[in-house]
């Protein structure tokens, strides 16, 4: 099976019905955003052994590749529109793997109202490598940025934090999980959060209507809060007791208190983190509830950033003292 066979058989059906995709038969696509909107563009690359495990099911790999890009769009308050996919596969590609990968993309496309519009297919001598560029739209001038948090704002997070990082331990059968004593349902919940992020596209409008600044949590709650704060020139204080946890994460933490750092810094959450003026909190929570995903206040913007601060983020533990974390989150090349 050559490159053209792969495109025709597995990827062209994902572009069906989108006029500017031209059934993936042209060298480029044509994409026109609706009137009075801005186009929002994001790109994420995933590499086997770095972002997903080499033996992860292909449908899960596809869902993660597209899901992390949808999460970026949601963090900017953007509604999904289309995406391109560049995929490098070991030779020869497995038909079963390709079919599973296609099915994973198709399911997420349908769930979030987005379609493939183009891309590239190449041969890789070693690992599977993927890159997706996702396009979304916002009303003109209303993309939510990192740089506009204000002193006095409250810091909110969607969903629950830490599940995916704990799920990686489950996926790799790390001996640390022996302490946790999780039942099968809890293990599967954590594993699912690692393999299949749940992009909060349902909160995109909520974010753009209420947030002063925002992003998605990809590399860990603490490091992404720090990125938002540094870009905005502010500092924040977060409290561990306010960080939203799933039942499975609470069980892990109860059995193994050392899990706390993993929960706060492990990454792969793909929840949304954003700032909101206090006077708009009631309306925010009502809108998030109506959208189907709860949001939780995890901290507040306490003041402008200072040069003396090692980090713009202070995390207060349950004993009322600041936590001293070995690291703040995942970063490449560190």
Automatic annotation (TrEMBL):
EC number: 2.7.4.16
Ranges of residues in domain PurM-like N-terminal: 26-138
Binding-site residues for Mg(2+) 5, renumbered to this chain: 219
Residue numbers binding Mg(2+) 4: 27, 42, 72
GO biological process: thiamine biosynthetic process; thiamine diphosphate biosynthetic process
Residues at which Mg(2+) 2 binds: 44, 72
UniProt-annotated binding residues for Mg(2+) 3: 27, 72, 216
Keyword Glycosyltransferase part of the UniProt annotation: no
Domain of life, per lineage: Bacteria
Pathway, per record: Cofactor biosynthesis; thiamine diphosphate biosynthesis; thiamine diphosphate from thiamine phosphate: step 1/1
Swiss-Prot/TrEMBL catalytic activity: thiamine phosphate + ATP = thiamine diphosphate + ADP
Binding site for Mg(2+) 1: 43-44, 120
Binding residue positions for ATP: 119-120, 146, 218
Keywords attached to this entry: ATP-binding, Kinase, Magnesium, Metal-binding, Nucleotide-binding, Thiamine biosynthesis, Transferase
Residues bound to substrate: 51, 268, 330
GO molecular-function terms, A-Z: ATP binding; magnesium ion binding; thiamine-phosphate kinase activity
InterPro entries, per the entry: PurM-like_C_dom, PurM-like_C_sf, PurM-like_N, PurM-like_N_sf, ThiL-like
Domain PurM-like C-terminal: residue ranges: 150-303
Function field: Catalyzes the ATP-dependent phosphorylation of thiamine-monophosphate (TMP) to form thiamine-pyrophosphate (TPP), the active form of vitamin B1.
UniProt miscellaneous comment: Reaction mechanism of ThiL seems to utilize a direct, inline transfer of the gamma-phosphate of ATP to TMP rather than a phosphorylated enzyme intermediate.
Family to which the UniProt record says this protein belongs: Belongs to the thiamine-monophosphate kinase family.
Name of the protein described by the UniProt record: Thiamine-monophosphate kinase
Organism: Dichotomicrobium thermohalophilum
Taxonomic lineage of the native organism: Bacteria, Pseudomonadati, Pseudomonadota, Alphaproteobacteria, Hyphomicrobiales
